[in-house]
Amino acid sequence: MKKDEATKIIEILKNTYPDAKCSLDFTTPFEMLVAVILSAQCTDERVNKTTPSIFSKYSTPEDFAGMPLETLEELIHPCGFYKNKAKNIKLTAQKIVDEFGGEVPDTMDELLSLPGVGRKTANVVMLEAFNKPQGIAVDTHCKRLANRIGFSDEETPEKIEQDLLNLFSYGYLKDINHVLIYHGRAICTARSPKCEECPIREFCRFYEKA
Which domains does the chain have, with CATH numbers? Predict the structure, then answer.
C-alpha cells in the first residue's frame, strides 16, 4: 500500500471517530501503567470497573511496592491472570521506587526495563501518560485491521508496528491506534464485520474478498 493511500484511510477514520481516545481511566502515569498491565487479555471496561476502588486507596508506586502480594492478587482478581499481573505490578513498583525515584520513567528503554512491560504497554504509556508517542501499540484490533486493510502482511506485533511506522509520518502516531480500535469495535469486528457500513471499504482488500 502506498503512503498517501494509507494516510487517506486514517484521515477518513479520524473524521468518522473524532472522539477516539484511550478508553482506560487514569489520573497519573503510574495509574496508567497499572491499568495497561491489567488490560492484557482483559477488556478495558472490566479494568475501568476494577481500578477505581484500588486507586482510591493505593495509587503510588510506594503503595504497591509495600503491599502484600496476596492483597494485590485479590484486588486485581477480576481482570484475570491475576497472579502473574500482581507479580509484575509489584516488581515494577519496587523498581520504580528503587531506581527511578518513585516516578514512572518517560523513555521507551527505561519503560521496557520494567518487569512485565513489553513494547505495546510502553507505547501506550508513552502516548497516554506523557504525550510522547514513540511507536504504535499493536493490539488485537490493530493487528486484525492492519492485515485486513493491507497495511501489513506480518503476523507478529513487532513486525506489524514496523510496517505501520514505515507507512505513516510521526504526526499520525497518536491517532492510529485509537481510530483502529474504535473501528474494530464498531464496524470491523473479528466476527461478522459490517463491511457495507464501512467508510473505508473501497480501500480494503478484505472487502474485495468478502
Answer: 3-20+136-209 (1.10.1670.10), 29-128 (1.10.340.30)
State the Cα angle at 189 between 187 and 194, rounded to 5°.
45
The long-range contacts involving 128-133, CB below 8 angstroms and separated by at least 24 positions, are 128/22, 128/24, 128/26, 128/32, 129/26, 129/28, 129/29, 129/32, 129/33, 129/104, 130/29, 130/106, 131/174, 132/106, 133/170, 133/173, 133/174
What torsion, rounded to 10 degrees, do the Cα atoms 88, 91, 92, 94 define?
160
Instruction: Return the pLDDT at 38.
Output: 97
Is the pLDDT confidence value at 1 over 90? no
Q: What is the per-residue pLDDT for 69? A: 97
Alpha-carbon torsion (38, 165, 162, 146), positive or negative: positive
Q: Tens digit of pLDDT for each residue in 28-63?
A: 999 999 999 999 999 999 999 999 999 999 999 999
Q: Exactly one of 90, 95, 120, 143 is catalytic; which is it?
A: 120
Catalytic status, residue 63: no
CA distance 188 to 161: 19
Given the residues 85, 90, 95, 139, select the one marked as catalytic.
139
How much is the mean pLDDT over the chain? Answer: 95
Active site residue 120: yes
pTM of the model: 0.92
Q: How far, in whole angstroms, is CA 99 from its chain's centroid?
A: 25
